Amino acid sequence: MASTSDFKNGLCIEFNNNLFTIVQFQHVKPGKGPAFVRTKLKNLNTGKVIDHTFNSGVKVNVARIERRPYQYLYKDDMGYNFMHTETFEQIPISETIINAPQFLKEGQNVEVVFHADTETPLTCELPPFVVLQVKYTEPGERGNTSSTSSLKPATLETGAEVNVPLFINTGDIIKIDTRTNSYSERVKV
Q: Residue 54, by phi and psi: left (phi above 0), alpha (psi -120 to 50) or beta?
């Protein structure tokens, strides 16, 4: 049990018979009336973010979660298969709980969040940035190679498509932000 004074970003709570993680919270003490806490809660089953206001001092159940290191192996009809990096145990995970499955490449390290009581995987999180090679993109137009305001589509080695600046060529290695699914920078080899 925890009260609203224990809230922090990333805290996992049981609310309305579901597991939610706190994305954002704000303690509010109005000049008149009791204090309260505004929160944005992300449902770990559906990924939907909701707004909810708790009265100050309300007790909530804290869900025990564990973050475990896994490595992506391959995809088959069971889903995406991962191996625990310490125990070598293999588990299949459905695409719906992976935050950016289009950027998964064999050997990629991820963090899988488990509900500690039921041992069920809740989310699979890629690192904030992944480095991938551009497999195909149209050549940049001469004279526009230094401009970053114009973008063109590029197909990556995982098959995902992102928009990149005109100066990126086929074979370049780039850094992708998995939180926004966008180009971040070119990587020097």
A: beta
